[in-house]
Structures are given as C-alpha cells and as structure tokens.
Design brief:
By secondary structure, the protein is an alpha+beta fold. Helix content is 32%, strand content 26%. It has a single domain, classed as Gcn5-related N-acetyltransferase (GNAT) (Aminopeptidase, 3-Layer(aba) Sandwich), CATH 3.40.630.
C-alpha cells in the first residue's frame, strides 16, 4: 500500500463554501492550461474536492436539474438517443461538470483521485435522490471510467452540438469533440463500482468528509423523455 495516500481527503460541500471555491480555482487553472479556457462559471450546486493535506488536487461539480432551469448539456446539445433507464417514472437528473485533477500528481494518486471524485459524486447524488447523471466528456476519459473503474456510462447517440452555444475553447474545438453520456446511479453495476472504490479508499485511510445536508435541493423529475 502507498503510505502517502492517507494524506488525501475528499470534501463534499455546497456552493458558497471555501472548499467549493478551492476546487473551482483548481478547475479554472487546469482548464486554462490544457484547453485555453478563459471563462468558467461557478453556478454549480455541489462541489467534490480532493485535497492533499490542505492543497486542492482534484475537483468535480454537480449541477442539479431544477424546475424551469437547464443543466449545461441541455444548452450545448440537441437531444439524441435516451437510455431506457431514463424512461422510468420519477427519475431525477443531475450533471457532472468541471472535472479537473492537478497536473502535479503521479499516476497512482491520480487514479485514486479520479475514482474518488466519481464515487463521492455518486454518494452526493444518492443523498439528494438523484438517479441519473448526464455528463459531457471526451471519449478517452469515458473509456477509462468504463474499462478501469467499471462505471456503465451510456453514450447518447445522435446528440448534436448546438454550434451557436458551443464554448469558445480547445476542449470543444480540437479533434475528438466531447459527447453526451448518461449513467444510471441505481444500476447494480454502478453501485458495485462505487462500493469497490469505497473499499479501496477505506483501506488506504483516505478520508471522506460530507458536509451536505440531506436533500438540500429541489430537483426536477424526468418525465416523458422518449
């Protein structure tokens, strides 16, 4: 076991807290370096931030679908093929956004941080009765989450980019544009993937601090998407 891993911790928190903005600062720095992104908003509901000691090393955010609001993917994509699990009555949806990991990390801690961010996003979603995540990601990352972490992401075939709303940075303009994906958070394979990661983090003495209150948000049900 790698002894330094016990210095890693994860904090789940709502917008407006110090840890939330520490994660957002890291995300902005990493996106600016890699994709020349100039403008990133902070209007997400939940932040999951990985720390090494008190230094932020990873971030992911959740935007929850609320009444009369759009999640980011709805602004960027025309709807494509929905997975069957989105046709279930009373589903509630959120979106994974702002995934970033410090470029100072070596391979092993990066793997723990990536897995831990997805796991903790799953925990935060379950706490708020969110049953489906949408996310806009590059295929390379999704393949990693599927093949190495066993998360069953579903690509929305036929989802078309709205060119007039596309962000002006290299993340969207470079070859291999991102696609829209969904994951069923109640699926047994999703739960098993997160349980396996939780076991790994526990065995490595990696702490998870959850500062959310139960069902903080008024989320919207998915109905009649097909």
């Amino acid at each position: 076991m790698y002894s330094y891993l016990h210095n890693i911790s994860f904090i789940i928190n709502k917008n407006g807290t110090d840890s939330f903005f520490s994660g957002r600062s890291l995300a902005k720095e990493m996106y600016s370096k890699k994709w020349s992104t100039k403008n990133m908003c902070d209007d997400y509901d939940i932040g999951i931030v990985a720390f090494y000691g008190d230094i932020p090393i990873g971030n992911i955010n959740i935007q929850l679908k609320k009444k009369r609001t759009y999640i980011p993917s709805e602004r960027y994509f025309e709807p494509g093929l929905y997975p069957e699990f989105m046709n279930v009555e009373n589903n509630k949806i959120g979106e994974l956004c702002g995934l970033a990991i410090s470029d100072n990390l070596h391979r092993i801690p990066r793997e723990y941080v990536l897995g831990g961010l997805i796991l903790n996003a799953h925990l935060a979603a379950m706490q708020n009765s969110i049953s489906v995540f949408a996310t806009v990601q590059k295929k390379q990352l999704i393949n990693k989450l599927i093949n190495e972490y066993n998360y069953p992401f579903f690509e929305s075939k036929g989802a078309n980019l709205k060119c007039d709303n596309m962000p002006d940075d290299n993340y969207w303009k470079h070859e291999g544009a991102p696609s829209l994906y969904y994951i069923n958070l109640y699926d047994i394979d999703t739960i098993n993937a997160s349980f396996h990661l939780l076991t790994q983090l526990t065995e490595s003495n990696i702490k998870i601090v959850n500062k959310l209150e139960a069902k903080d948000y008024d989320t919207q049900e998915i109905t009649n998407v097909a």
